Fold:
Amino acid sequence: MQSCKKYIFPGCCSANLILFLVLVFSLPVLISPKPVMAEGPGVTVFIYHRFGEDKYPTTNVSAERFREQLAHLMMNNYQVIALKDMIQAIKNNTPLPEKAAVITIDDGYRSVYDVAWPVLKSFGYPFTVFLYVEGVDKDFRGYMSWDQIREMQEAGVDFQDHSYSHFHLGDRPEGLDEAGYRAWISKDLQKGSRILAEKLGERPSILAIPYGEYNSVVIDEAKALGYEAICSQDPGSISAETDIWSIPREPILGNEWSTMAHFEEVLNRIDMPVTLVEPPSKPLKTDKVSRFSAGLLYPERYQKGTMGIYVSGLGWHRAKQDGNFVYFDSDKPLQRHLNRVTVSGRDKESGRLALRTWLLIRPEKQ
Structure:
């Protein structure tokens, strides 16, 4: 197997993302005096990787815990809907369910076939698997075979694209100009899409970006190839105003982030619709960002004094407000290569945490 630094667990959440989750979900704004039961509308998209593989603790969830989580959804009247159906509802502006979840699995490890699929079948839940195409096609150790994948597909399981090589697409390789960078992204995505079409009989329509590392160039190239939606690994929930080119997914993995407490906390969040964010997820030319801001579509929805903005390495800051915009000014450079920015606040009616997250990648050479 490769090492984590060299695309080890293709599709795994990076240490940066795990640290981000630990920090952002312990911020002051997240503390509520009483737990509030989820009331819709709202959809949570979960992302899993490995099942019952204890030797990979950072990307694993036990079979018992996975079954417990699915049982929680059933016992609490959550609809588990197909990813494609959720995307179509957003595109067609049709109502989303009041309490719903979507299950996605990245990479295509053998434990999906051996462990997760039997559990999911017992509940009758739909799910989507995003395949790391090279890992499957070259029969990498620990991955499903094409025969197993076709067996699942014939039974109704949805398979989509996680790229061919599982590169860090948000980082432009050294020596490439922008045109070369775009061609490099496009070539890899085309190769993965072509092989999936050959092996499974249809081209994938949804891309899950490897490691959740993206910028506007990656999104543009995926759009140009005909994908209908893109999934990230940014934390957040789904609403009618979710951007289908950056669908947030909540990682369920590791010792802490696969617990029932975390699972239930994630289900209780809602989306914070925005009109724009600054800076956007374009390739940055400098590590200095003087202002982080978001335009709120519904600023009247949130409790006074609860609005905040979190930036990886810079921490949580109480947001200032100017009309529909919330912001905070910074005189410090970005502290990390990967920086997630989260704007959050408490919903007035339900008391639930509303948030929206986007990614900024710091340039390594300036």
Summary: DSSP finds nine helices and 19 strands in the chain. The radius of gyration is 20 Å. Residues 1-39 have pLDDT under 50 and may be disordered. The first helix runs from residue 15 to 24.
